[in-house]
Amino acid sequence: MLRRRFLMLPVAAVLAPRAGRAAAPQQPPDPELLALLRKAIRDPRGFRDRFAAEVWLMDMSRRLRNRVPDPKLRIEILEAAHYEARRAGLFPGLVLAVIQVESNFDRYAISRAGALGLMQVMPFWLKEIGRPDANLFDIQTNLRLGCTILAYYLRRSHGNLRRALARYNGSAGRRGYSDRVLEQLSARWYRQ
Predict the structure, then answer these.
(1) CA–CA separation, 111 vs 184, rounded Å?
(2) Residue 128 and residue 77: Cα distance in Å, rounded?
(3) Treating both helix axes as pointing N-terminal to C-terminal, what angle do 161-169 and 176-187 enclose, rounded to 10 degrees?
């Protein structure tokens, strides 16, 4: 049975105009973002530099041990986060900070708005990209879509990380969410 966890702040609420209508967007999704998500979901590649990935995995595994005690699950999350962040052109530590704020590494987290998984992706995206049966509790799928969305907002915000994070969270114009992610990035997921 899936564990359910209700989060105070819905992730990617920007993707759902109202919490009551979380499963279906009020306006059609941005065509550019939709095309990026469709392309991203088809990309099956893995790590390019295995040695660098292993060094990173060892360090981050130590940092994540208290939140994800199961070593197999911890490595699965870290491998997917590393790869999906790099694939989307993001710093892997940033993705880990977003995950910490969004779901505290609970892969079965469900927000009040209906966002799912580690990066709290709204389910309507699956239908929009032609994958209605995909599982947002699947680590790879969730991180693939979440990283693609975050990278898109970063590009649309002309590299302004605070704005991109606020758009990802649906809190544009407010700093609280962005400040929490950046605080976690600085405190726990910083560069080596």
Answers:
(1) 20
(2) 25
(3) 120
pTM assigned to the model = 0.77
Closest CA to 6 of 106, 144, 138, 143: 106
DSSP helix/strand/coil, 60? helix
Q: Torsion over CA of 9, 186, 151 and 101, rounded to 10 degrees?
A: -20
SS3 assignment, position 121: strand
pLDDT band per the 50, 70, 90 thresholds, residue 55 = confident
Domains, in order of start, for the chain? 27-187 (1.10.530.10)
Residue 116's DSSP bridge partners are 110, 121
Residue 155, C-beta contacts closer than 8 angstroms, at least 6 positions apart: none
User: What are the structure tokens assigned to 87, written together?
Assistant: 């694939």
Distance separating alpha carbons of residues 72 and 84, to the nearest angstrom: 18
**CA 26 remoteness from chain centre:** 22
Calpha distance 114→110 (Å, rounded): 6
